[in-house]
Amino acid sequence: AQSVTQPDIHITVSEGASLELRCNYSYGATPYLFWYVQSPGQGLQLLLKYFSGDTLVQGIKGFEAEFKRSQSSFNLRKPSVHWSDAAEYFCAALYGNKLVFGAGTILRVKS
Amino acid sequence: GAVVSQHPSWVICKSGTSVKIECRSLDFQATTMFWYRQFPKQSLMLMATSNEGSKATYEQGVEKDKFLINHASLTLSTLTVTSAHPEDSSFYICSAREDRPTDYNEQFFGPGTRLTVL
Q1: pLDDT score recorded for residue A52
Q2: Which residues of A touch B95 (CB under 8 A)?
Q3: Among the partner residues A41, A45, A101, nearest to B43 by beta-carbon distance
Q4: pLDDT, tens digit (0-9, with 9 covering 90-100), for A36-89
Q5: What pLDDT shows up at residue B99?
Q6: Which residues in chain B have their CB less than 8 angstroms from residue A90's CB?
Q7: Closest residue of chain A to B41, computed from CA coordinates
Q8: d(Cα A77, Cα A100) in Å, to the nearest integer?
């Protein structure tokens, strides 16, 4: 079945520290891959997407993600986290016409 | 960027009543709209896909008579939860997409509606 897995439910990092959020998608043809951020009371905002080509994609707010076909992974990274990055992050894959989301990772930033 | 709004942002209703949630695309024509449901600490689950002027396509396990979707115009879709019960309490999120002849058309998400059924 088509699925997206985010193994970490919660992650806490110190402000200024680096961040990596993990995401794996089910095997098969490489879908389009996305990372979204959801802040309380706000809709999902697209951080970045991968379709093809360069496996390292840059997004907004200083985020980047690396696609690794051999690991079926699309991990999100940021070199230095800011307190305003505290939110919930969703990885998603587009299978055909359908976006399939991971369960989300809640990021807490401690000062 | 494209903006999608939802109204209301939260609603509390009594069991047995019906609730209507609106989803509007404010600055683009939403050829296709999607309705998702999000349970606490869980992912967004697609409920249905609707195209303007045609019947919605429901995902497996979603009761079409329970969750009525109308997409009457290119800027408005509504989700009506009929005869709501406490188990229908959830966070409902819509998204909208303008379908153009390109490889990929982005979905833009609304802020969500929190439904609590007492």
Answers
A1: 86
A2: 44
A3: A101
A4: 999 887 789 999 999 888 899 999 999 999 999 999 999 999 999 999 999 999
A5: 82
A6: 43-44
A7: A103
A8: 21
